[in-house]
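Cross-check.
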Amino acid sequence: MPSPEVPSSVPRNGSRNNGQVPPDPDTVEKLRSKIGSLSTATLKQLDADLPWYRGLRPDERSALGLVAQKGIASFVSWYQRPVSPAWVLSDVFGTAPTELTRSISLQKALQLIRVVVQVVEDQVPFLAPAADQGPLREAVLRYSREVAFAAADVYARAAETRGSWDTRLEALVVDAILRGESSDALRSRIAAVGWKSQARITVMVGSSPPEPNAAFLGELRRVTGRLAEDTLVGIQGERLILVLGGVRERDSSYRRISELFGAGPVVYGPEAESLVAASSSAQAAFAGLTAAAAWPGAPRPVSAEDLWPERVFAGDDTARKSLVHSIYRPLQSASNGLEETLSAYLTLGHSLEATSRELFVHANTVRYRLRRVCDVTGWDPLLPREAYVLHTALVVGRLYQSVKPPAERLSQRSADLRTL
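Predicted model, tokenized:
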């Protein structure tokens, strides 16, 4: 039995607004005449249904109102002549300021679209005759889908723009820290990148992976986000720089973070009080990275302070002063001949018996004095590596004593006399 013929004026899919059959001109005209009332009804519904909308600033409410009004007007044009939806992006959202994406989340934007669609759909019985109500509702739904995709595109582009700007700003902050800049501009940039940690700061440096792509940076931020309160990332050529604030369980965290660096040594500097003061930590870390090749057996990561001897040989004056102030002078100020005992012990091949004979004291006295050296300096002469650091400190300290300026020698002598 042959199927009944379908009138040529009606499309086979049942929709009149599919680009083949134009909509009823009377319906289009009625839609145009109702744009103002639909916009007013939409704004009232937004105020009634969305608590966050009521809390917006007047300028933000006005911008959203323009988006809603433009969306309704554009729907009428689209319903009259459906075309490619590419225009939705600029036609609906072109009036909205870029800053709106910062105060209105994508979720809230979609809630707004839902309210607008609901208002228009509720008015369908008053806008079109019964025969046109089905196609009009279908057109509303298809149009709302395009607007929702356009909104997602707007927010995605805004996020990409903010991400690019944040990355550049982060690079400027890291560069300023490395250069030792301390200014109001740096403090402003630190606030702009969203740094919130008030804890102590550590700078960690090493080689970057061969291809530090977006996936690597995402993994890096994910890991450091669990181990520290805040992180700044800088990649300068083949070097990766991390500025870490408020590191939790430092030893285990440093080891885990070092796994994300490329091949070669990873060095972390001493803790600083703030980002503005973190330049000293960064300089020590970079000096340690330069000198780390002289200690093939160094742990990974290694503290810049553990590399004091190698940094001295590499010409780092900060390391030389640190050895003098942290080890040599405390030994000089201590009683019981600690410097003499340590010097003899190191010179005589780390032999307790030979040291006791040289100093005419019992071996137990030598042991006691060496333990005191550890208490005073924090370095244990019974451990080979730490004994090497202490030996370097003695050499550097003696040279420092012999060449320091007369004014400094006079100041040191006065200080010694006051302690008597």
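The two ends are 124 Å apart (CA to CA). The chain has three domains: 25-161, 195-313, 317-419. Passed to J.P. for a second look.
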